[in-house]
Amino acid sequence: MYFTRALATPATTLGQFYAFETIVSFLMLSSNAGLNKAMSKRIGERESQESYVVAGAVLSGTILVAVTVLVLLASPLVVNYFGFGGLGVLFILGLLWAIQVRSMVSAILQGYSQVGRIGGIDLFDTASRVGFQATFVFLGFGLFGLMGGAVAGASLAAIGSLVVLAVGVPLPSPGRIRSLFSAEYARDLLSYAKYVFISGFATKFYDNVDIVVITAFLGSAATGIYGIGFRFSLFLMVFSGAISTSSLPEISFHSAEENVDRVEEILTDATVFATVLAIPATVGMLVIAEPLIVTFYTPKFRDSALIATVAVAIQIPDGFRSIFRTTIDAIDRPDITLRSGIILVLTNGVLDLILVPTVGIGGAVAASFTAITFATVYLGYHLLRELELSWTVLPFRPILAEGCAAAIMGLIVWGIKQRLALPTVQLLVVLVTVGVVSYFTILLGASASVRQRFLGIVGDIRP
Q1: What are the angstrom distances between the C-alpha of 75 and each of 19, 100, 267, 297?
Q2: How confident is the model at residue 176, as a pLDDT?
Q3: Neighbours of 352 (CB within 10 A)
Q4: What's the pLDDT score for residue 1?
Q5: What is the crossing angle of helices 234-256 and 35-44, to 10°?
Q6: What is the pTM of this model?
């Protein structure tokens, strides 16, 4: 919200910054090489945890140094093609190192089932980045303020994550590190990571190919409008990601114990919660997307309204995909995740190249929605086959209740919007409040299954 008002050319500058983030994202994938997910998986099995921590840290550090050297050698390409200048290369490397340190710490904490600490680190990371970026933009640094602020905030979060790790996990003493490192554990991590790496590449490609294609065909300003449209889906992505993060170590443990019933129970609960916010958010965006975009990001980004609506709708199949993918990885079948990633990449890439030049920005979100849906169906089919379960095990009734509650909520919100004459900001507050209250009131009243799950959460949180 602040950047769209403070920057001289917000669409173009934000588009350039999204391209910068895309570069770091792909480099992060190379420097990580699937090791973080492999570490979480193996540590979560609760055997030889310290050895896997040491092996993962050594491998990760070695790969990160190699990627850094390659970036320095390729710096003329980065400078000339993206126009960031030599300082931009240093920003790329600084952000790459900071994110990798924090991600590795998060992987270790996840393996030890300390996902609550990961949430605290992520929140601190976001707050630090935004604080530094807003300060630097206020001082007039523009694009370099956005990039430098991201590096400063991520670096501070990386240092904080190391402190949290030292306090929360029984790490081996420095004298024992050499004795704990073993080529056997390193090979085991790499054997799992090779699938995760390719699958992760597919996910990163899906996450960023739209930005690359739009920048190439339509320019940075269009990239900025597209990126702003996806801002409203970030909360839903965080929510489904939290469910996946929590589920992975538990499913890994119970799968190793061959406790299929418990795996099925976790899968069912996670699937219900994967859509509990995405479905009503999609209905709500159909009603109030344009005034939301204009109010939050100024009328310059009015064209982002359609993008925002479809971006939120994408989180419905993507929520399922996240849970299915986590469960498949946890039961030690990353090869299935790999094949779904290939489907995702090919579908999204081909459709982007066809639709973006002909349809425009809307073609990119249509390509993303189609690709995610295909990949989700593929994952769901093979997951149920691996667990020897039928489609009836999926919680269709609670999900249908979510859809019905969202539809009724949408009618209520639309009716109030048509009849209530208030200034835009006040009207949005009323509509969102009514929407949230009516949705959860209807859902909890209509679905005993969902109500029971929510009461279970309240029981866990309550002292």
Answers
A1: 16, 20, 45, 34
A2: 66
A3: 23
A4: 82
A5: 50
A6: 0.70
Mean per-residue pLDDT pooled into runs of 10, the chain (463 residues): 88 85 81 73 73 82 88 78 71 92 86 77 91 94 92 94 81 65 76 70 74 82 82 79 74 74 81 88 92 87 87 91 83 82 89 91 90 93 84 84 95 92 89 94 88 78 64
CA torsion, points 411, 417, 420, 423, in degrees to nearest 10? 160
Which residue type occupies 387?
A: L
The 3 state secondary structure assigned to 298-363 is: CHHHCCHHHHHHHHHHHHHHHHHHHHHHHHHHHCCCHHHHHHHHHHHHHHHHHHHHHHHHHHCHHH
CA distance 345 to 366: 14
User: How far is Cα 343 from Cα 375, in angstroms, rounded to an integer?
Assistant: 6
Select from 232, 183, 250 the least CA-distant residue to 46.
250
Question: How many Å apart are CA 406 and CA 436, to the nearest integer?
Answer: 10
Q: How far apart are CA 186 and CA 194, in angstroms?
A: 12
- Name the residue ranges covered by the structural domains of the chain: 1-181, 191-394, 401-463
- Distance between CA 65 and CA 128 in Å, rounded? 25
Query: Could you report how far apart the first and last alpha carbons of the chain are, in Å?
Result: 37
Residue with tokens 């009516």: 438
Query: 110 and 168 in contact (C-beta within 8 Å)?
Result: no
Calculated CA dihedral for residues 426, 430, 431, 435, nearest 10 degrees = 150
Secondary structure, 3-state, 91-110: HHHHHHHHHHHHHHHHHHHH
Q: Which long-range contacts (CB under 8 A, 24 or more apart) does 408-415 make?
A: 408/438, 408/442, 409/280, 409/283, 409/284, 409/435, 409/438, 409/439, 409/442, 410/283, 410/284, 410/286, 410/287, 410/435, 412/438, 413/284, 413/287, 413/288, 413/438, 414/287
Cα 272 from Cα 312, distance rounded (Å): 17
Q: At what angle do helices 361-387 and 304-330 cross, to 10 degrees?
A: 20
From residue 290, how far is each of 80, 218, 232, 356, 422 by CA, in Å? 37, 22, 12, 22, 16
| Cα–Cα dist 411/404, whole Å | 11
